[in-house]
């Protein structure tokens, strides 16, 4: 059972709530909360240490505090959170590389939990109905958060080969939704009008923040290992979700993602990311058998319930341009 836990990314919503949940568990003797900026929310009895995981000082912290469990939540899901795409990639990829280098040298370390993403599977017309953890993307993400997730997992697998004594868990989570959660997915559905590719209606799963935090805590405090898909039951399509959110859909050409992003930025909406277009076309589904069988976890909300809790707006309205919902 973990006794000394280090959590990264605590200034952001997921990291902060997960840190607080772990701090409430009496089996955790000490919890160290790490981020480059102080959190604006409570983190319970956790002790905050201001540190950038890109800095080698992270290794000193792990050793001095005799950390046996690292929960890595310090990945940024949107370029706007980081101050630009280059900064996002540097924090996500270089930061993870530095953290794992510190973990490799730490004799006290016994377990690492890494929050990954379903984005690693990409989106394409050749995709299976449901991705299992041993499947790879039919079309590997070439940019954005999806590409960062691919690189992060590559580094984690490298550490697994070098330190087979460390238990590793990678949680490939579906799109997160919840109060204060900022992702390209949430920014898309917060737009007043939703551009959607003409002739397509991608299906997707989500995971509520409450369930995401519960899964992270369970992964940190149990003996489950390996890569695990984590998502709520059921699926929605883009147009079904738009109707639940009472947002009109604007049909656009699938090839116009870059132009729509430019227009969105010029208008100050900043809610559309061109990297999303393939996802809006083809969607993505994950098999969650390992979530139940290995992690022993069951989400409390379905995809529809989680989405409606965050974006639901009551009475449904039709889409623009005659598109069917």
Automatic annotation (TrEMBL):
Residue ranges of domain NAD-dependent epimerase/dehydratase in the record: 5-187
Lineage: superkingdom: Bacteria
Family matches, as Pfam families: Epimerase
PANTHER family per record: BIFUNCTIONAL POLYMYXIN RESISTANCE PROTEIN ARNA, NAD-DEPENDENT EPIMERASE_DEHYDRATASE
Stated name of the protein: UDP-glucose 4-epimerase
Organism annotation: Rudaeicoccus suwonensis
